[in-house]
Specification:
about 190 residues; mainly alpha; two-stranded antiparallel ribbon; elongated
Length: about 190
């Protein structure tokens, strides 16, 4: 019923995340906006059922799916929950939702930039802990042994991952991805 009220903000936001949205079959601003409300509601449910840590983990996953505004939108829905005497139903609260998206669209580049900066910092930190690859990554002739030649420093902690929720390139010949796995280890001192 209120989709047209979200149109301007949705059309402003969608081009910034279009590639990622389309990869999840959300091909237009309207679907993205509907899904934003669904996902933020799930965050609220997760918070009520499983606690803050679980909800924050869900928000982090949603941001990685390029729903950068989920944290703010779920906080806004928390205001709705707390003020049910003023807002007896979501219909009466909808102007607040519209205002949220209008404000987000007006300041989008800055807000998305903050999240992407946080990601880049985390990636640099991970890269600093990743071993230096020194040769060709390969399988043996049976395709059952995978080799990554690396250079390791003494007394250093490393992290190596194969696949992640958003990157499933490590697959068998039938295209079945490896369940994401992370190896963490520390080398001996000299």
């Amino acid at each position: 019923r209120h989709a047209d009220e979200l149109k301007d903000a949705g059309q402003d936001i969608f081009p910034f995340v279009e590639e990622e949205m389309r990869s999840m079959a959300y091909g237009n601003w309207r679907t993205m906006m509907y899904e934003s409300l669904v996902r933020s509601s799930v965050v609220r449910w997760d918070l009520s059922q499983n606690g803050r840590e679980s909800a924050e983990s869900r928000i982090d996953r949603e941001e990685k799916n390029h729903f950068f505004w989920i944290s703010g939108l779920s906080e806004l829905l928390g205001e709705y929950e707390a003020k049910r005497g003023i807002y007896p139903d979501l219909e009466s609260f909808f102007p607040e939702i519209k205002g949220f998206f209008d404000d987000y669209a007006a300041n989008m580049e800055e807000r998305i930039g903050v999240i992407k900066s946080r990601w880049e910092e985390a990636a640099r930190e991970m890269a600093a802990r990743a071993p230096k690859i020194t040769g060709d990554v390969s399988y043996d002739e049976t395709r059952t042994v995978f080799t990554i030649p690396v250079e390791l420093a003494p007394d250093t902690e490393y992290t190596v991952g194969l696949n992640s929720k958003n990157a499933l390139a490590f697959q068998d010949e039938e295209g079945n991805p490896l369940v994401p796995v992370t190896f963490r280890f520390k080398t001996r001192g000299r």
